[in-house]
Write a structure and sequence with these properties.
alpha/beta; six-stranded mixed sheet; five-stranded mixed sheet; glycosidase
Length: about 775
């Protein structure tokens, strides 16, 4: 059933009201029985692993010591078995919460007291807000609803979200799930959302356990006959360190995520789930993951069955566990691990180590602490799902994620007095499920674009295309008539999951089918201003619309979530002031000699329609630098040994040769609103390093802030820069260095500042 409403910000779905009437006796989710250590079970309540006063590692060791090898092996997979003799229930590890509690994984189901959950905008949309506090707040709401559903017996506590892969190629069908193409932005999103999901409980306790996926260099699903199960991503050490691994490192080091998922693909000839350099040495060793490593679903089977990486299944089981894999999403390890132990390919200690990581996370979640209702978050229940506050946040997230790409001649905002009749046209003009993208659940309710606009004016609706494929133009004439009759025309076009999705990469970037023809014909026929609204996860080449003088404004709304229609209408009417190359080539940097233009805004050298970070407002902002250093001396560690020849060649210091923790600086920036309308401004700060032979000197995002500035006033913003992280570069060997010399800091579009970095070499340099 589709639930619709006129004002989602004030809306309580009728099913929540009826559920509350039925459940007025309790809101604690008493349907959830203790996972383990039930105080009513006299056989287990005195066991050492059930004693909450003991350190978790002691309890984990005691539990593992009580398990047989066969029991241990059946706990290595996502649908872990029950161990009745120890009072432990079975557990499904696979749940999803990409932008709201989802029923994609078998660990979560909707129904009964929980018919739906708040569905926020798809990640690519929310990331466009450049608002770290919003991302964390969304995570807190999602985990509130997840805990409530766990207490009610409808969900687990381990959520395999977020997806923080770099959106390298715009044709990738899953780019919508990610924070986008910039590694700094993706890293900040990852850490913020994870902190919101996992909470800040005492003693490393977790509200829910998040998981950053898919590690690493995974951004191809099914393109031109090449699929993710067979793809070997050939990645340089430079690109791995400088781009692909950045958000995962931020997720682990800054977000303290409880899990990382390895991907289907190979990286430089090795399956990621069987590569000890990636798993054991990097994630757990260098980054110090406090949690478990899980495979993407059936990827252990894939490396044996599809990639033929090992000769026997037992070798595949042994290779993955010894590489650092702790949990298999799929049956492979349950079937073949015992054989690997019997053949001497794997020891029981290896199995114990994997189990220690998964059980530790379960204990941090309180799953071995007895009665759930007596624990932190045990009071959450049905009335904590789809609350008015949660739905208002979904609306606010959609408003902040919408990007105004073009506003020719002040077309927007529309006026309720001048634009009393609006033609609403296009295949996405009255959609519901399309707005929540993929890896979504069941939304609390929907407001479609048509319904949202109808709150402001009378509407004339023509879908014109039966779906986004838009394969014929039989209904275009009716759309042209509607545009002639209306005071303004809004075309809601774009994509949906039939065009871009998991295992569905695009072959081109244009609007599907005859959508472009529809836009152009309606624009010619329209009596009033024409606004093009693009609903999509991946980018669309709308050069034709940008260059069409009859199209006054262009909005990109992503997949805006359950309240998308309200948010779109609020921007349209000014209630909200908005702030062919082979896909398998994994190189980020351009190579003109080979006709390769590069990937993402940092390295792409070709023409663009709208640049990264581009977005307009209904008002104007001006930046002024109030305080910032113009030079900085980089001290060396006393133990450093600098090769003078290498330093003379590169003019850059290894970050390991200096105390990076002490190298921070602040940019104090005054943001002035010189227009006549209050507005929220996204301040973007980029840096450009001194030219070097071994790295790119193009600009890269190093910081951003969201600030609300009333008309005619100014606000001071401080953007912190970490020298090693934000002014550093990565050479062709994957070594991070800090170039000496003039670094250009680009603040917004109207301000530049130079910072000179000089090495304090002293007597440390060696020849």
């Amino acid at each position: 059933m589709v639930f619709r409403n006129k004002n989602p910000s004030l809306f309580k779905p009728f099913w929540v009201l009826s559920v509350l009437a039925l459940l007025c006796l309790s809101n604690t989710g008493e349907a959830r029985q203790p996972f383990a250590c039930d105080p009513k079970n006299g056989l287990t309540r005195t066991l050492k692993f059930c004693r909450v006063t003991l350190p978790i590692h002691v309890r984990v060791r005691d539990l593992i010591g009580r398990l047989t090898l066969q029991e241990k092996i059946r706990l290595l997979v996502n649908n872990a078995i029950a161990v009745p003799r120890l009072g432990i229930q079975g557990y499904e590890w696979w749940s999803e919460a990409l932008h709201g509690v989802s029923n994609v994984g078998p660990g979560t189901k909707f129904g009964g007291a929980f018919p739906g959950a708040t569905s926020f905008p798809q990640v690519i949309t929310t990331a466009a807000s450049f608002n770290e506090s919003l991302w964390e707040q969304i995570g807190r709401v999602v985990s509130d609803e997840a805990r409530a559903m766990y207490n009610g017996g409808n969900a687990g506590l381990t959520y395999w979200s977020p997806n923080v892969n770099i959106f390298r190629d715009p044709r990738w069908g899953r780019g919508q799930e990610t924070p986008g193409e910039d590694p700094v932005l993706a890293g900040k999103y990852a850490a913020s959302y994870v902190r919101g999901l996992q909470g800040n409980g005492p003693g490393n306790r977790l509200k829910v356990a998040a998981c950053c996926k898919h590690y690493t260099a995974y951004d191809l699903d099914n393109w031109n006959g090449i699929d993710r199960y067979h793809f070997n991503a050939r990645v340089s050490k430079q690109d791995l360190e400088d781009t692909y691994d950045v958000p995962f490192k931020a997720c682990v080091v800054e977000g303290k995520v409880a899990s990382v998922m390895c991907s289907y693909n190979q990286v430089n000839g090795k399956p990621t789930c069987a590569d000890p350099d990636l798993l054991k040495n990097t994630i757990r060793g260098e980054w110090r993951l406090n949690g478990y490593i899980v495979s993407d679903c059936d990827s252990v089977g894939v490396l044996y069955d599809n990639q033929h990486y090992t000769e026997t299944p037992e070798e595949a089981a042994a290779d993955t566990i010894k590489a650092g894999l702790d949990l298999d999403c799929g049956p492979f390890l349950a079937i073949h691990t015992e054989g690997a132990v019997k053949r001497g390919l794997l020891s029981e200690i290896d199995v114990n180590n994997a189990l220690a990581n998964t059980i530790t996370v379960q204990m941090r979640l309180g799953m071995y602490d007895g009665e759930p209702s007596a624990q932190p978050y045990g009071n959450l229940g049905p009335r904590d799902v789809c609350t008015p506050a949660h739905q208002q946040l979904a609306l606010e997230a959609a408003r902040q994620g919408i990007v105004l790409l073009q506003n020719r001649g002040g077309t927007l905002p529309l006026s309720t007095s001048r634009h009393r009749t609006v033609a609403v046209i296009g295949p996405n003009s009255d959609v519901t499920v399309t707005m929540i993208g993929n890896y979504a659940g069941v939304a609390c309710g929907y407001t479609t674009p048509l319904q949202g606009i109808a709150r402001y004016s009378r509407t004339i609706h023509q879908v014109a295309c039966r779906d986004v494929a838009c394969s014929n133009n039989q209904l275009f004439g009716a759309a042209e008539i509607a545009a002639r009759r209306a005071d303004a025309t809004v075309l809601v076009m774009g994509l949906d999951q039939s065009i871009e999705a998991e295992f569905r990469d695009r072959t081109g970037l244009f609007l599907p089918g005859l959508q472009q023809e529809l836009v152009s014909r309606v624009a010619r026929a329209s009596r009033g201003p024409v606004i093009l609204v693009l609903m999509s996860g991946g980018p669309i080449d709308v050069s034709f619309a940008k260059n069409d003088p009859r199209i006054g404004a262009i909005l990109w709304v992503g997949y805006p979530g359950q309240a998308g229609g309200t948010a779109i209408a609020d921007v349209l009417f000014g209630t909200t002031n908005p702030a062919k190359v082979p896909m398998v080539n994994m190189n980020m940097r351009a190579n003109p000699a080979r006709g390769y233009p590069g990937r993402t805004y940092r390295f792409y050298k070709g023409p663009v329609v709208f640049p990264f970070g581009h977005g307009l407002s209904f008002t104007r902002f001006h930046h002024k630098l109030a305080k910032a250093p113009s030079q900085l001396s980089i001290p060396l560690l006393s133990s450093s040994s600098i090769n003078s020849t290498i330093f003379a060649t590169t003019k850059a210091l290894k970050v390991t040769h200096t105390d990076c923790n002490s190298l921070t600086l602040g940019l104090h920036i005054d943001v002035e609103n010189t227009g006549t309308m209050d507005g929220t401004h996204t301040l973007l700060v980029f840096s450009s390093s001194p030219a070097g032979k071994y790295w790119s000197d193009g600009k890269q995002l190093v910081g951003f802030k969201k600030v609300h500035v009333p008309a005619g006033s100014q606000q001071r913003v401080v953007v912190g820069l970490h020298v090693c992280k934000h002014l550093g570069v990565v050479d062709q060997f994957g070594v991070r260095r800090v170039p000496m010399g003039e670094h250009q800091i680009l603040i917004g579009e109207d301000l530049k500042h130079s910072i000179s970095l000089q090495a304090d070499l002293g007597d440390i340099i060696k020849s």
